[in-house]
Amino acid sequence: DEDGNGVVYSYDAVGCTEPLSYGCTGSANPLIQPLLDNQVLREHQSKAGGVASLSAEEALDLIKDAFCSACERDIYTGDAVEIYIITKEGVRKEMLPLRRD
User: Fold this and answer.
1) CA pair distance 29, 20, nearest whole angstrom
2) What is the pTM of this model?
3) Distance between CA atoms of 87 and 91, rounded to whole angstroms?
4) In sequence order, what are the residues at sequence separation of 6 or more whose Cβ sits closer than 8 angstroms to the Cβ of residue 35?
5) Is residue 80 within 8 Å of 96, Cβ to Cβ?
6) Which tens digits make up the pLDDT trace of 41-93?
7) SS3 of 9-53
8) Helix (H, G, I), strand (E, B), or coil: what is residue 3?
């Protein structure tokens, strides 16, 4: 955004978009969203410490871990995730294979 903070744009079934600090949609949402709430907002922790300050690499690792875990429980998640990292330097794409069995 204009202040240099990361933004994720979510969209719904009718195509409306909304800027968020983080979010999750799709069939794995019920599995991934509580993890993000816990790790990003520090919700539902015995020692809540406010919003986490994650580096870009820490956020990317969290997303990768979340999808790797979700694909083991949700058959609709798919075999891979395309992750686009958008910075002022440009766009970088990473492919994350999920199911290897």
Assistant:
1) 15
2) 0.78
3) 6
4) 66, 69
5) yes
6) 887 777 666 777 888 899 999 999 999 999 999 989 888 999 988 888 999 99
7) EEECCCCCEEEECCCCCCCCHHHHHHHHHHHHCCCCCCCCCCCCC
8) coil
